[in-house]
């Protein structure tokens, strides 16, 4: 899903509206698969999805207020990259929580 969102940002010639719609389409499969994942997996995906959608909203607002598309696209890419970096840092603690949960079930 997040590769999909990143690909949306890199589509040459795509308007900001097309990028916005593309990112929304990327997030649709997550909503459809929700019952099939463990709660910790969903938590990090949901948080990352919200973060990237926030970036998308900021980019759309910036574009709507008159910013040039290359500037907005660069802002969007930096924001999405920051989301990914932030959530990658959460993986070790999420892994520990999952391991603790599995250990408690096995006892």
UniProtKB/TrEMBL annotation:
Domain of life, source organism: Eukaryota
InterPro entries documented for this protein: DUF842_euk (IPR008560)
Pfam families: DUF842 (PF05811)
Example of a GO cellular component annotation carried by this entry: cytoplasm
Similarity remark: Belongs to the FAM136 family.
Record's protein name: Protein FAM136A
Lineage: Eukaryota, Metazoa, Chordata, Craniata, Vertebrata
């Amino acid at each position: 899903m997040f590769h999909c969102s990143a690909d949306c940002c890199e589509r040459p010639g795509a308007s900001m509206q097309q990028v916005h719609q593309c990112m929304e389409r990327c997030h649709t499969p997550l909503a459809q698969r929700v019952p099939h994942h463990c709660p910790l997996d969903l938590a990090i995906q949901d948080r990352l999805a919200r973060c990237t959608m926030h970036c998308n909203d900021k980019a759309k607002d910036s574009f709507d207020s008159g910013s040039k598309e290359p500037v907005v696209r660069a802002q969007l890419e930096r924001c999405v990259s920051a989301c990914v970096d932030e959530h990658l840092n959460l993986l070790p603690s999420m892994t520990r929580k999952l391991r603790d949960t599995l250990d408690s079930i096995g006892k």
